[in-house]
């Protein structure tokens, strides 16, 4: 793609001219997809772990360091103004992408993990949690939405209440409702599971939390890249995601928070930028979102993320989502042809994540063997050990699809798994 033309287009991402869905052209946007691994064309099916980057994102990183590099918000010199404008413009793009009410509700963080830690930590320090209070999470949470709450709980004696799931890997909503008590102070639930693929009814989950006067955080690490997110329509009080899973750089992510909460919460970290005035006796803090962005941020990460969102919006999101759904359906069908293969996570409403086991073969062996054919999938517990325990498996193999994947790649996965079975089965 022509980077200069792409980047000079200063229109808001909502008004970007739409491209037709053309898989060959899309794949050409991602340089890494044309490389080989172990002498075979790369088949990248580990998109739930991280997504590949289109050339416009890669170029934006290079462009920033080559032409705009300066620290932001501080200097009045030309480069500092350019960098500040680019960074704040990226914040505006995020605001538009998720339809936040204001850019001040967009806090740049390192990723989904840091976003959840920030909320857990500041909620605790704000005095909202008392000894014996309860926080509701679900059985399918990533460790990033379990451990931060346990850290908070350690010194406040707070109890985690867990929404159970059925054998398909769907949350049991009747049980969720029963978990509320007068002690419930927070609900924090994943939108789409990284190890099962389940898409949870988060709008309903949030509504029920609100009926009990309880705020809700949605972990959008696996939903932002596969669906249209409108935080106002969802009603989420907090929504977190990571840039690297939505075609942007690593080390950057977003915490969306309703202004009323962000204004109420204390800062997460102290340092430059987040202050209004510092004396040795007392420090006052900056307005949101800067109050939560102490120190020099990941400037180029923010810029790259803005470009990634703009890239996505150069398509009809529905075209991308429809291709991913077809890939998931096709892969499910093809993999089920393999004898002894069991899919873990069979929810009716699923994102393009396909986790499985093959009878008698350890998932690690599957991953290692198919890597020799250039096929990248993930094996392990996927940072969801409670999910592994629930399904009574030590680990799974997981293929996860992006809109740049092809049906031929699914066939290659199928054939490679047959080969694994012949070798080890
Ligand atoms: N939540 C979910 C559902 C995830 O899949 C991940 C990443 N695997 C995270 C949170 C954490 O994301 P990150 O490591 O980018 O902070």
Descriptive report:
With 425 residues, this protein is α/β, with parallel strands linked by helices. It has two domains: 78-312, 3-Layer(aba) Sandwich (Aspartate Aminotransferase, domain 2); 317-424, Aspartate Aminotransferase, domain 1. It is built from 15 helices and 17 strands. It has helices at 3-8, 23-28, 55-68, 78-98, 112-125, 147-156, 173-179, 202-211, 231-234, 259-264, 299-312, 317-335, 363-371, 385-390, 407-424, and strands spanning 36-37, 40-41, 43-44, 106-109, 134-138, 159-163, 184-190, 216-219, 238-242, 253-257, 275-278, 283-285, 341-344, 353-358, 375-376, 378-380, 396-400. Strands 4-10-9-8-7-5-6 form a seven-stranded mixed β-sheet, with helices on both faces. The protein has a four-stranded antiparallel β-sheet with strand order 13-14-17-16, with helices on one face. A two-stranded antiparallel sheet has the order 1-2. Helix 4 (78-98) packs across helix 11 (299-312). The chain is globular, with a radius of gyration of 22 Å. The protein starts with a helix and ends with a helix. The mean pLDDT is 96. The protein binds 4'-deoxy-4'-aminopyridoxal-5'-phosphate (PMP). 4'-deoxy-4'-aminopyridoxal-5'-phosphate binds next to helix 5.
Structural class: alpha/beta
CATH topology of the largest domain: Aspartate Aminotransferase, domain 2
Number of beta strands: 17
The low-confidence parts are none
Number of helical stretches of at least 4 residues: 15
Q: Average the pLDDT over all residues and give the rounded result.
A: 96
The first-to-last residue Cα distance is 45 Å
Report strand %: 15-25%
The number of distinct structural domains comes to: 2
CATH arch. level architecture of the largest domain: 3-Layer(aba) Sandwich
